[in-house]
C-alpha cells in the first residue's frame, strides 16, 4: 500500500503576534480557515495543502492553468483581507510553500531580521490603489466620407471631422495626465510611501475604459485614510477624468521581502507574484 504524501504548508503572510482572531468564516485556498503558527516574536499564517498540487513538479503545471491560478489568488487575497482587519500583515508571494511546520519555523528564523524591518515599515498602515483614466466617449459607428460628385468636398469634410476627433482625444488625455499628476502629488502628502506601477493595458479596462494615465499604490497610516479617500473624490469631479480607488489592502506593493526569501532552506519555493 502506498503511503500518502504528507500535506505541505502554504504560507500566506508573516505578522507580529496580535490580539483577537480572524473574522468568522475566513477561509483560504483550501476552503478552511488558516492556522497561526507562532515562533518567537513572529507569526506565520499557514494552510495545509496537498502535495499532489503544491509540490514542485505539480505546481509548475498548475501555474499554467489560469482558472486554478485565479482561484488560488482569490483564496490567498481573502486571507490577507481578513488579516488586514485585525493587524498589518506582511504578504508573501502566491505559492510560498514549505515542507512542514519545521520548514516554516526555519523560514521565520532565517528571514527574521528582514521580516521585522518590513513589519516595522507597514505597522499601522494599509495600501490604497488609485488609477486615473482619460475617459472616452462610448464607441459609435465610425463616420464614412459623404458622397459628392467630385469626391473632393465630402472627403475634406470627413478628414476635418476625423482630425477634430483626434485632437479632442489628445486634449482629453493631456487633461487627464495633468489631473493625474496633481492627484498623485496631493495623495503622496498623505502617504508614507508610493509605488508607480506601469499603466494598465487598455484591453483590461474594457472598450470604454479610456487610457490609464496613473496606476499607483500608496502606503497610508490608517488614521489618515479618511482624508486620503476624500481627495480622490474631489478629483473625480473633473470633466473627462475617471478616478478608480481600491483598498484598503494589505501592503502588497510595499512588502519588499518575499522575493528575498526565494530558495532558502526552510522553503520550497515562491512563484507567481500576486
TrEMBL record:
It comes from Streptomyces thermolilacinus SPC6. InterPro entries: GvpL/GvpF. One of its GO terms (cellular component) is gas vesicle. GO terms for biological process: gas vesicle organization. Keywords: Gas vesicle. It is found in: Gas vesicle. Residues 157-180 have a biased composition (Basic and acidic residues). Residues 137-180 are annotated as: Disordered. Signal peptide: none annotated. Belongs to the gas vesicle GvpF/GvpL family. This is Gas vesicle protein. It holds the Pfam family GvpL_GvpF.
Amino acid at each position: 500500500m502506498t503511503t500518502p504524501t504528507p500535506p505541505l504548508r502554504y504560507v500566506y503572510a508573516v505578522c507580529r503576534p496580535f490580539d483577537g482572531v480572524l473574522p468568522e468564516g475566513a477561509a483560504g485556498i483550501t476552503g478552511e480557515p488558516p492556522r497561526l503558527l507562532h515562533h518567537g516574536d513572529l507569526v506565520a499564517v499557514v494552510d495545509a495543502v496537498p502535495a499532489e498540487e503544491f509540490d514542485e513538479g505539480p505546481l509548475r503545471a498548475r501555474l499554467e492553468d489560469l482558472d486554478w491560478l485565479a482561484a488560488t489568488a482569490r483564496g490567498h487575497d481573502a486571507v490577507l483581507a481578513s488579516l488586514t482587519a485585525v493587524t498589518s500583515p506582511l504578504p508573501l508571494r502566491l505559492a510560498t510553500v514549505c515542507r512542514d511546520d519545521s520548514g516554516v519555523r526555519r523560514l521565520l528564523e532565517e528571514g527574521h531580521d528582514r521580516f521585522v524591518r518590513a513589519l516595522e515599515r507597514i505597522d499601522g498602515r494599509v495600501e490604497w490603489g488609485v488609477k486615473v483614466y482619460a475617459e472616452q466617449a462610448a464607441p459609435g459607428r465610425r463616420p464614412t466620407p459623404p458622397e459628392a460628385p467630385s469626391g473632393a468636398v465630402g472627403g475634406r469634410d470627413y478628414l476635418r471631422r476625423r482630425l477634430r476627433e483626434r485632437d479632442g482625444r489628445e486634449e482629453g488625455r493631456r487633461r487627464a495626465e495633468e489631473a493625474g499628476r496633481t492627484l498623485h502629488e496631493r495623495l503622496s502628502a498623505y502617504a508614507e510611501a508610493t509605488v508607480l506601477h506601469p499603466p494598465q493595458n487598455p484591453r483590461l479596462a474594457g472598450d470604454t475604459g479610456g487610457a490609464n494615465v496613473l496606476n499607483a499604490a500608496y502606503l497610508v497610516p490608517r488614521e489618515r485614510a479618511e482624508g486620503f479617500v476624500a481627495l480622490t473624490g474631489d478629483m473625480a469631479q473633473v470633466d473627462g477624468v475617471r478616478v478608480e480607488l481600491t483598498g484598503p489592502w494589505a501592503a502588497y506593493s510595499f512588502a519588499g521581502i518575499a522575493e528575498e526569501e526565494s530558495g532558502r532552506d526552510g522553503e520550497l519555493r515562491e512563484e507567481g507574484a500576486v
